[in-house]
Design a protein that fits this description.
The protein is an alpha/beta fold. It has helices at about 45-60, 90-100, 125-130, 155-170, 175-190, 200-210, 230-235, 320, 330-340, 355-370, 390-400, 410-420, and strands at about 5-10, 15, 20-25, 25, 30, 40, 65-70, 105-110, 115-120, 140-145, 145-150, 220-225, 240, 265, 270-275, 280-285, 290-295, 300, 310, 345-350, 370-380, 405. The protein is about 30% helix and about 25% strand. The two termini are about 35 Å apart.
C-alpha cells in the first residue's frame, strides 16, 4: 500500500497510509491508558509528531529567516477540497481562463490611462494562436466536462513563442499585439484578489517567523506572486514593510532601502542604546507587482487599480533574461545574498521548483553555505512526475544536507506545524 509522506529528513520519515501512521516505516503505537496494550496513533497524535519534528528543525536560534512564497501560497481550498477559483490559481487554471475568454474572438482591453474604460478589440483564439506560431496543431481535448486544454499544454512555453512571433509578424500585427495583451490582462485579473483573513494565513505566518528573530534581524520575504497579500496582511497588523521603495509621497524604487532599519536612541546613565522597532519585514517581489508602474526612468508604486502599464514578469521560458532588467536584477541579486548569510533558515511554500533560475540559485546556496537550513513545504511530497530540481533536492537530503520536506500548504497546515510547539 502506497504511503503518503508528511515529513522527511535524512534521519526521520513520518508517513501514513489508509490504515496506520508510520515513523521510519514502522507503525506508530502508543500505550493505551485503559489497558496494557498499545494502540494505533490518532490523526491528532500524528500531527503532534509532525509539529515536534518541524520544531526541532526550525527552533535553533537562527540569525536570519528567508521565506519564499510561490504561486501555491495564494491558493485556497473550498469545503469540497477543490481550489477556490475566487483566490489564487494555478498556471493551468489561468490557461483555462485564457482559453475561455478568447473563444469569442473579442476582448475588452483596459485603457492604460483609465483602466475603467474598456476598449473592445478583435483577438485570435488560443487554438488559432497555438497553431499559427507553431506551438501545437491541437491543444484541445474532450472529457466529461466538455472541451478542455490538453494537460500537456504549457502556458510559459506558449507565451515565449507568442512573444517572439509577435515581434516579427507582418500580417495582422495589431491583432497579434492585442491578443498578446489580452492574455497578459487575463493573467493580471486572475492574480488580483483582496486579502481575506478567514481564507489566508499570511498574518499568522509573518507573526510566527518574526517572533523567532531578534528585532535587529528583519524577516525577509521573497515572492514570485504579483498579488498584494503580504502587504495587506502586514498592514492589518501595523507592520512596516521595506519593499525597496522610498517612503515618499510617490514611492520610487531604490534598492538601498533594504539596508535600512527602524531604530531609536535610548539614553542611559552611562551609554546610549539603539532599540530596533519590532514588526518590520523586508519584501522582495522578484517577478514584479500589480502595484508597480514605470514613470520615465523610475519605477514607482501606486494603487494596483491605478492607470499605467504594470511592471511584471509574465510566465514564459525567457523569465531568466527578463530578470536581468531593472528592478528585477537588484532584487534577484539581493535574494542571492540573503541565501549566503550565515546561520540562515530558508522556508519555501507554494514553490514547485519548476522555475530553473530560482531553483538553481537555491540549490547552489545549499551546496556552498553549510549554515543554510532549508524547509520545503508543498501540498504533496509524492509528486507523480517530479521536476529535475525537486529530484536534485531530494538527493541532497539523502546526502545529509540540512534539508527537510514537509507536506503542508500556507493556508492549511503550515502555520499549525510551525507555531504548534515553541
Amino acid at each position: 500500500m502506497m504511503k503518503t509522506r508528511y515529513f522527511e529528513s535524512h534521519k526521520l520519515n513520518l508517513s501514513a497510509d489508509e490504515k496506520e501512521y508510520y515513523l521510519n516505516d514502522e507503525p506508530l503505537k502508543v500505550q493505551d491508558s485503559d489497558s496494557t496494550k498499545k494502540r494505533d496513533y490518532t490523526k491528532s497524535e500524528f500531527d503532534t509528531e509532525i509539529s515536534k519534528a518541524v520544531s526541532q528543525f526550525v527552533n535553533r536560534s537562527f540569525e536570519h529567516i528567508v521565506l519564499l512564497l510561490g504561486a501555491g501560497a495564494s491558493v485556497v481550498k473550498n469545503e469540497e477540497g477543490e481550489i477556490d477559483p475566487e483566490y489564487g490559481k494555478t498556471v493551468a487554471m489561468i490557461a483555462e481562463q485564457v482559453l475561455g475568454q478568447l473563444s469569442s474572438k473579442k476582448y475588452k482591453l483596459p485603457n492604460f490611462n483609465d483602466p475603467s474604460v474598456k476598449i473592445s478589440t478583435d483577438v485570435f483564439t488560443l487554438e488559432e494562436m497555438a497553431k499559427d506560431i507553431g506551438y501545437c496543431d491541437n491543444i484541445i481535448c474532450t472529457n466529461k466536462y466538455g472541451k478542455r486544454l490538453d494537460p500537456q499544454f504549457n502556458l510559459e512555453t506558449f507565451l515565449s513563442r507568442l512573444k517572439t512571433y509577435t515581434q516579427f509578424v507582418k500580417t495582422d500585427q495589431q491583432k497579434w499585439e492585442d491578443s498578446q495583451n489580452a492574455i497578459f490582462d487575463i493573467i493580471k485579473q486572475a492574480t488580483s484578489y483582496e486579502y481575506d483573513k478567514s481564507k489566508f494565513k499570511h498574518k499568522a505566518l509573518i507573526n510566527i517567523l518574526s517572533k523567532k528573530l531578534l528585532p535587529e534581524n528583519k524577516l525577509s520575504i521573497i515572492t514570485t506572486n504579483y498579488d498584494t497579500l503580504i502587504e495587506d496582511a502586514a498592514e492589518s497588523m501595523n507592520y512596516t514593510v521595506f519593499d525597496g521603495f522610498s517612503f515618499s509621497r510617490t514611492p520610487k524604487f531604490d534598492d538601498d532601502m533594504f539596508e535600512w532599519h527602524l531604530s531609536k536612541h535610548v539614553s542611559n546613565v552611562k551609554t546610549r542604546e539603539n532599540i530596533y522597532k519590532k514588526q518590520v519585514i523586508d519584501l522582495l517581489k522578484i517577478h514584479g507587482s500589480l502595484t508597480w508602474r514605470r514613470d520615465g526612468k523610475d519605477v514607482i508604486r501606486l494603487n494596483k487599480k491605478a492607470p499605467g502599464k504594470t511592471i511584471m514578469i509574465f510566465p514564459s521560458s525567457d523569465k531568466y533574461m527578463q530578470s536581468y532588467e531593472e528592478p528585477y536584477f537588484e532584487l534577484f541579486a539581493r535574494f542571492q545574498d540573503l541565501l549566503k548569510q550565515p546561520n540562515t533558515l530558508l522556508i519555501t511554500t507554494g514553490f514547485s521548483f519548476a522555475d530553473n533560475h530560482i531553483s538553481r540559485m537555491i540549490i547552489q546556496a545549499i551546496s556552498h553555505n553549510p549554515s543554510l537550513s532549508t524547509l520545503i513545504a508543498d501540498y504533496s511530497l509524492n509528486p507523480v512526475d517530479p521536476n529535475k530540481n525537486w529530484e536534485i533536492l531530494h538527493d541532497m537530503l539523502h546526502d545529509t544536507y540540512p534539508i527537510v520536506f514537509l507536506k503542508a500548504t500556507l493556508n492549511e497546515k503550515l502555520t499549525d506545524y510551525l507555531g504548534g510547539i515553541e
